[in-house]
Amino acid sequence: MFMGSQIHSTAIVSPESNLGNQCKVGAYAIVEDGVTMGEKCDIEAHAVIKKGTVLGNDVRVGHFSVLGGDPQHLKFDRSIDSIVKVSNDVRIGEGVTIHRSMYANGVTKIGARCFLMGYCHVGHDGELGDEVILANGALLGGHVSVGDFTFIGGGAGIHQFIRIGAGAMIGGLAEVSRDVPPHVTVAGRNQSCGLNLTGIKRRKISEEETKALKYAYRQVLMKGGNPTEIATNCITEQIIKVSPKAKEFVEFFLTESRGFIRSRSLLVKS
Q: Which of 32, 83, 133, 164 could form a Cys-Cys staple with 52, CB 3.0–4.6 A?
């Protein structure tokens, strides 16, 4: 069960857990019953991996982090079995907390190649896509969904049940209580500051796609009015129909949960 793994003499590792080859468990770390780890995981000193947590390959968990803790919900039934599932090649900094689902057999998910920096938090039933970065102290409430390649700045607070589209960039200390469409930059309180052009360039999105995204952004977020109605009207326009990225952007507004962020330029005018 622990073949090829290095477990410090002061660590507590349940015999009911399952560690892959070449895992490391540091001093005073705790691995509870029913934990499953892939190969080459590194659990640093004083980290706690709680019951039922599933780690992929090459997952690094920093000092004093706690994975799989109970949801912070007043009506949560602790007898419920639910899990945290972390994909491959994820780095988790020191003091990070990730809470398990509040539903029976539910899952809080962390995608592949994510980087959760020190002291950030992912609430119960959250779902992070691949290559998401949470900077130090970023806080995600329960049921938050974050798309691939998104960056959330240090100290940012994300309200429960929020959707953040792929490729978005949330500024440090931002307060987000409305849905954030893909490829958008956010600062302050629910203020859109344009497209995340730096991220678009890094991901080598074509000039044609970028042009279409800019058009979609102007149409939906910079003209005022109801974004859902505007998106419904412009989704059939040719420039959007032929661009997967622009179509993704516009379609985001067709599913509304908590309303949407608004353009800073419109907020300043009002």
A: 83
| Three-state secondary structure string covering 150-172 | CEECCCCEECCCCEECCCCEECC
Spot the catalytic one: 95, 137, 142, 165. Answer: 142
Beta bridge partners of 108: 84
- pLDDT tens, residue by residue, 119-155: 999 999 999 999 999 999 999 999 999 999 999 999 9
Active site residue 46: no
Q: Are 24 and 43 in contact (CB under 8 A)?
A: yes
Quote the longest CA-to-CA distance of the chain.
Answer: 65
Amino acid found at 17? S
Q: Quick one: which of 242, 222, 71 has its CA closest to 141?
A: 71
Whether 124 sits among the annotated catalytic residues: the reply is: yes
**Which parts of the chain sit beneath pLDDT 50?**
none
pTM of this prediction? Answer: 0.96
Q: Active site includes 42?
A: no
- Structure confidence at residue 268 (pLDDT): 66
CA within 13 Å, CB half, 142? 16
Tokens of 10: 């002061």
58, 89, 125, 179: which is the annotated catalytic residue? 125
pLDDT of residue 270: 54
